[in-house]
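tool_log.txt
---
The assistant was asked to compare two proteins side by side. It first ran the structure predictor on the initial sequence, then on the second. Raw inputs and outputs are pasted verbatim so the downstream comparison step can read them without reformatting.
(1)
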Amino acid sequence: MRFWPGAAPSLPATLDDLLDQHVQLSDLLGTSADRLAESVAGAPSAQHALVMLERHMLSAVRESAPQDPGVAEAVQLLLPWQPVEISATARHLGLSASQLRRRFLSSVGVGPKTLQRTLRFQGFLALAQAGAAASGRRGADGMAGLAVDVGYADQAHLSRECVRITGSTPTALLGGDIERCVCGHDHTASFQPFLRTRASPSRRL
């Protein structure tokens, strides 16, 4: 289950305390986790189980404390198709850089710069998986063009970030096929509004 950055329901712990941790669902949801587990286990099919899980989480989101509006706006500004400096984002929101970072750590789990780098990399993978054509800026095409489109300076910049984040080069991560990521994860799910504005060589997304 994935949430938009900053959009997870309110939890007993701040999200930076949960970063890179494996925790029991009951530690986060209390006794409702046991009821949810029983309902899912007794579902007549996997599809019914997914519907139950979705309904439960939607209810949890509606009943949770409101999302930090400053973080929500900042997340939109940090999406990869509109590169912006973190300092400019903080000024736009009337916050200092340190205030913005504290609010991000609580609501997202990482600081704004880390989120921006992560979203940029995920944006590249989403474009690659969707078979999107590069926009042609700076005369770049293929992988280099997609890298530029999401905010990398060039393909070398993408390669350095890819190795830093995943330990693999972009070519190795994509399995030699720009439309396939060997991790098997659907990176396009979180970027549908962006992808719908992009063209592939053979279709409109």
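(2)
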Amino acid sequence: MKMPTLRELLIDQLKDLYSAENQLLKALPKMRRGATTPALREAIESHLGETREQVERLKQIAELLDCKLAGKKCRAMEGLVEEGAEALQEDAPEAVLDAAIVAAAQRVEHYEMASYGTARTLAELLGEREVVELLQETLNEEKAADEKLTQVVEQEVYPAAQREAEEMMAEDAPADNGRRKSGGTRSRGARSGSR
């Protein structure tokens, strides 16, 4: 597609975002179902509602710019969603899976922040004030979602993952620590005797 003007570049960016948000509408419920931490499920559910509003906002922008947003597939979001789906298939303790879900979700948020920031800047250059305001509203939501995910992972998910790891280590530890110590001593003695 040729993009000889900034307006056409803006519309192309908006088409990409429209595709990305619609892909997320399908992916977020799967992430929510895969999450085990209540705060993470709540954060994903909240952002799902925001994503629906963001799609509607993009439709408003399309009306303002008198353009259509359908017809383009956001390949970057397709890849990010696929990575998120792979994370859900991992064989790991629950909190580790939640950490993987957050990692995938934050990659999505950062992609969206970059994309909405670019579109907003283009709209500013073109003097499209209403479009700028709508894009900024979404950009603010994406930043808030990213901050919420950081808060959840740092305050709940990572500590839970550490507890799970400690419990697994405790289960794997020998029941008789005395035997382990003497075994270690014999091993050192055996090495010194072989010199």
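---
observation on (2): Residues 129-172 form the longest helix (44 residues). The two ends are 75 Å apart (CA to CA).
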